[in-house]
Design a protein that fits this description.
Blueprint lengths: L9 H11 L5 H46 L6 H72 L1
Helix pairs in contact: 2-3
Length: about 150
Amino acid sequence: MATKAKTQDYTAMMKDMMSAFPMDMKPFEDMMKSQTAMAEKMSGVALEAAQKSTDLSSKWALDTLAKMEDMTKVKEEPSDYAKSMTDFMQSTAESTAEHMAAFAEIAKKVQTETMELMLAAGKDATADMTEAAKKATTEMTAAAKKATAK
């Protein structure tokens, strides 16, 4: 007569094992909060840069249009048209240099703020991971001692 082999209940075994080593979810929740705070700060940096760039572009366009208005007015002498065009080109070149320098400053500020945020996030993540590892070690040690005491 054949005897039936009893199949191991892995689900029950996993439940028993997991309950012997309880897991504190607070470090994961803290990590999630810190990640969302970081994303909020990074979004703030990007949105501020976009706003400043848009404002600068708008100002540049308005300045150019104002200079074009002077250039398109009726002149007394034909040579005045050439002078007007030359003045427009010179002022446009100066304006371009100024505005490009302003765009560079915006980009530089974004780069600096991003690096500061990344460094701060790295320090926070290291501290969080160290704290979580210490806590997990303490809990695992206590659980192991409790399990061996039985």
